[in-house]
Amino acid sequence: MQPPERGTTSAFLSVTTLFFAWGAITSLIDPLVAAVKGIFNLSDLMAQLSTSAFFIAYGLVSLPAAGLVRRLGPANAILSALAMMIIGCLTMLSAANMAIYALVLAGLFILASGITILQVSANPLAAALGAPERSHLRLTLSQAFNSFGTFLGPILGAHLFLNGLEVKQGATVTPEARADALAGIDTAYFWICGLIGLLLAYFLFRRRLIQQVLVSRATAANECVGGGGLLRDALSSPWTLVGGLAIFLYVGAEVAIGSQMALFLNSDAVWGRSDLPFTMPLIGAIMGDDGQAGVSLQEAGKAVALYWGGAMIGRLAGTALLMRISAARLLAFAAGIAMALCLYVAQIGGVSAGFAALSIGLFNSVMFPLIFTLTLERSSASAEATSGFLCMAIVGGAAIPPLVGLVSGIHGYGPAMIVPAVCYALLLLFALVAGARPGQAAHRVSLAAGH
């Protein structure tokens, strides 16, 4: 028996809320890195451990999450994920009230573990909750809300975490600014905890309806499935390994740039002493002007939203370009431009480098789905094994940012862009090799998808 259409639509909207929530929570990491650097007087390397604590969950939890979904089903797995996220938020609240950085890292890992389970569970639900012929449209819509969440997260985080906080060399963080930043972290994760609690209650109430939908409509397995046998299958294919390395490098570069962006823009070598960004209508409106000369850390943190907003816009443009350009050529173009922008920032610097750095997000937008499908077309392993391995490779977001933080601590934020430039250079090589070796079958890809 088919469930009522109204109930199915309501369930789909609630799943879409999950996409928005994990997008916003993930992008909160960017202003949080700048905040903990000032609150706990950390080096760039130590501050970037916040990013590592979050993204390492993808590498450690993806395969266990797949097993959990298989045993419990997507609906019950979502309940487990939301409960884990609430525990993560409560840990973050404790960290803010006790001012303990180790608890911040623990809270971020627990929160990201829950999000990993959500990503394994929610994609098939979004596809299944409605008419089968519209599953692609529903998943695209849900992913669009995810991108919107990543756009809003840095604005919210900068407003709450970075008010009055400065971390430039020689700057002193006042007790008042430190207390305000800790209070902002407490406020953000308190409300996130409340939102997740409401979603948990709703899914608990609607669990039977969702199970009916999944029984009445055969649902394809989620991309991020796995297990010991699938991992061995994935490791048997050279193209799966190469594609996994490409995902590792892409996610690492994207996350490293985003998490350092506020600190980079706030530096005196870029926007710290300039009022030019406020003369740009869109940038000035998003940043806000506190009336003080130059770009403060809070204003720079809000500008990070433009980096993620570029990714949202780029996915729409990339979809149109794929009608005319092959996936390998589009990836080569995007990786080449991103590399050139990184080199410009590293070698030229100045106020213009701030605009160049923000624009990298536009070219990042198409990379994840293109790498994903180019690898699937060429891998000799099963699609399930290949997809699961590529999802695990998102752990690059835990490895590359500390390296960038180490370089920035020694040479400065601009020169540290050499690290993502190398990542993009290797992605350009991947695209060229993939273009020279046609895949087994053509795959249509929705560029609304992402990590």
Secondary structure layout:
Layout: H1 5-27, H2 29-39, H3 44-47, H4 49-72, H5 74-98, H6 101-128, H7 135-161, H8 175-216, H9 228-235, H10 238-266, H11 281-287, H12 297-321, H13 327-347, H14 351-364, H15 367-378, H16 383-392, H17 396-411, H18 418-436
Q: Can you write the helix and strand succession as a string? A: HHHHHHHHHHHHHHHHHH
- Second rung of CATH, namely the architecture: Up-down Bundle
Number of separate strands: 0
Cα Rg: 21 Å
Biggest beta sheet summary: none
Broad shape = globular
Name the CATH class.
Mainly Alpha
Mean pLDDT: 85
Structural class: mainly alpha
Helix content: over 70%
- Bin the strand percentage: under 5%
Question: CATH topology, which one?
Answer: Growth Hormone, Chain: A
Keywords: Cell membrane, Membrane, Transmembrane, Transmembrane helix
Membrane topology: Multi-pass membrane protein
Transmembrane segments: 12-29, 49-69, 76-93, 99-118, 139-162, 188-205, 239-265, 305-323, 330-349, 355-376, 388-410, 416-436
InterPro entries: MFS, MFS_dom, MFS_trans_sf, MFS_TsgA-like
